[in-house]
Amino acid sequence: MPKMKTKSSAKKRFRVRPGGTVKSGHAFKRHILTKKTTKSKRQLRGITNVDAADVKSVLRMMPSA
């Protein structure tokens, strides 16, 4: 049986925390920033948890996590 591979895109975007939650960066922070308010850009800093509805699909892309 061949090894199960991790999706390259998933390993670049997500990290699984010891408690089982998945952390990721915020979306909408890469370009077209001139029309976004300073407040919204500031609130997109840092990391966030992946929504509980999406954790299952993220973990399926990362079988060894």
Q: How would you characterize this protein structure?
A:
- One of its GO terms (molecular function) is structural constituent of ribosome.
- With 65 residues, the protein is an alpha+beta fold.
- It has one domain: Factor Xa Inhibitor, CATH 4.10.410.
- Helices cover 34% and strands 15% of the residues.
- It has a 3-stranded antiparallel beta sheet.
- A hairpin with a 5-residue loop joins strand 1 and strand 2.
- The two termini are 19 Å apart.
- The relative contact order is 0.27.
Task: Please state the average pLDDT score.
Answer: 95
Number of domains: 1
* SS element count, helices: 3
**What portion of residues is helical?**
25-40%
Question: Helix-strand pattern, N to C?
Answer: HEEHEH
Count of β-strands = 3
Low-confidence stretches: none
Q: How would you characterize the largest beta sheet?
A: 3 strands, antiparallel
Structural class: alpha+beta
Quick structural gist:
Keywords: Ribonucleoprotein, Ribosomal protein. The protein is an alpha+beta fold.
List the helices and strands and how they pair.
Layout: H1 8-13, E1 14-16, E2 22-25, H2 38-43, E3 47-49, H3 52-61
Antiparallel strand pairs: 1-2, 2-3
